[in-house]
Design brief:
Blueprint lengths: L13 E6 L2 E8 L8 E4 L10 H6 L6 E4 L16 H14 L5 E6 L1 H12 L4 E7 L12 H7 L3 H4 L1 H12 L7 H9 L7 H10 L17 E8 L11 H11 L3 E7 L11 H17 L6 E7 L9 E4 L10 E7 L5 E7 L11 H6 L2 E8 L5 H11 L8
Parallel strand pairs: 3-4, 3-5, 5-6, 7-8, 8-9, 10-13
Antiparallel strand pairs: 1-2, 2-4, 9-13, 11-12
Helix pairs in contact: 2-3, 6-7
Length: about 400
């Protein structure tokens, strides 16, 4: 059953509370009480208002707890800088003050690092862990120095013009083509705390990495790569970054799904995000309930159809594009570096039934199980006969 993309905002429940001597500005959206609450940990410099559209889209039965980190938004500066360990202890005591023994924890970016730390060192308080657009801390593939330089200042929260100029490099995705939309979201109701609060957040994670204790995180793990802005079908799967994210998880023995959304043929920049949001949760639940063999990931592609106009779900095989439609385009990236993009004319081909291309072109949601083992067994057996060799593993 698809969920609603346009939920009515719940009642305003923002207030201040003193936890362990620290005043925190929090927001608690009541739920049904049938499950633990969802505790949201925001990105660096962001106040709890920035998460409002996400909260409004969630199931109203889920209690949602948000807070401004010390020195951010409406939470005053603490007396001294803090580290992740101290912030996680404060989060645990906030849960206790609100009458909860445990919570599902979702962390975004900087908040994802905090959430990893919480799941490790407050593990009895964390039932489930959700990590969004985050990393392992100081030991990771670093961003470009120019990006890091713009991240160490809260200016993007203060100056809408500065954000418009830098949104593409900082956030990528739709921020490249719609920087004003990012500015409107981040400046609509967001509260900015003192500059020193931003510095305290930077200090809290300085030198921190989760790599040594990642094996200690025991919460059930699911990797969702996407939803990508553009389909990943047919030959796309061999060079897609979205697919690669799911491959890395599968290599580690973690159930992984790649999710992508096809664009309109007539309007290439148009994406029906509400379709993925409406149907994605139920598809994920159904896939999790199914049995998967090891070494297999699920590649999900949503068609360019309205949420209530989906023709169904199809389990498909990888298709093949019409390479007569391939074109090479010269482009320039955000930093002025030229590159070449291999693409196809925006014409519908006539793919065979049962393929991912066929499913998406006919308005179906395509689910393709992809194996990490790319060996063609029948070709290997035929080649072995031709060469007079015994196939590996048979002798």
């Amino acid at each position: 059953m698809p969920i609603s993309f346009h939920r009515k905002p719940g009642p305003q429940t923002t207030r201040s509370i003193v936890v362990d001597g620290q005043q925190l500005r929090i927001d608690v959206r009541p739920g049904s009480g049938k499950r633990p609450p969802l505790l949201l940990v925001n990105g660096i410099g962001a106040s709890l208002e920035l998460l409002q559209p996400f909260v409004d889209a969630l199931d109203p039965g889920i209690e949602v707890i948000r807070f401004d980190a010390p020195g951010v938004g409406g939470s005053p500066l603490p007396g001294l800088p803090y580290r992740f360990t101290g912030l996680c202890r404060l989060m645990a005591r906030l849960l206790s003050a609100l009458g909860h023994g445990e919570a599902d924890v979702l962390g975004i970016s900087w908040g994802g690092g905090v959430a990893q730390h919480f799941a490790t060192f407050q593990r009895h308080r964390c039932r489930r862990l959700v990590l969004v657009a985050t990393a392992t801390g100081s030991l990771m593939v670093p961003a470009r120095p120019s990006v890091l330089a713009r991240m160490v200042t809260p200016r993007r929260y203060l100056d809408r013009g500065y954000l418009r100029e830098n949104a593409a490099g900082l956030y990528g995705g739709s921020a490249r083509s719609q920087p004003d939309r990012i500015g409107a979201l981040m400046h609509a109701n967001s509260r900015v705390g003192p500059a020193l609060g931003y510095v305290y957040q930077l200090v809290s994670g300085a030198g921190w990495t989760s790599l040594p204790f990642l094996p200690l995180i025991r919460e059930p793990t699911l990797i969702l790569s996407g939803v990508n802005r553009g389909a990943n079908m047919a030959e796309d799967v061999t060079y897609s970054g979205t697919i690669a994210g799911a491959i890395e998880g599968t290599l580690l023995g973690v159930r992984s799904m790649a999710l992508s959304l096809a664009s309109s043929f007539e309007n290439p920049g148009q994406f029906r995000w509400e379709t993925a949001l409406a149907h994605g949760p139920e598809i994920i639940r159904r896939l999790l309930a199914a049995e998967w063999p090891p070494g297999v990931l699920m590649n999900v592609n949503f068609p360019d159809r309205a949420a209530d106009d989906i023709a169904g779900i199809a389990v498909t095989e990888q298709g093949r594009r019409d390479h007569d439609l391939m074109r090479i385009h010269e482009r320039t990236d955000t930093w002025g570096t030229p590159y070449y993009w291999l693409g196809y004319e925006r014409k519908r081909s006539n793919p065979p039934g049962g393929t991912d291309l066929w499913a998406v072109y006919t308005g179906r949601i395509s689910i393709t199980p992809l194996s990490l083992n790319l060996t063609d067994r029948s070709a290997a057996e035929s080649l072995s006969r031709d060469l007079g060799e015994t196939p590996a593993g048979d002798g």
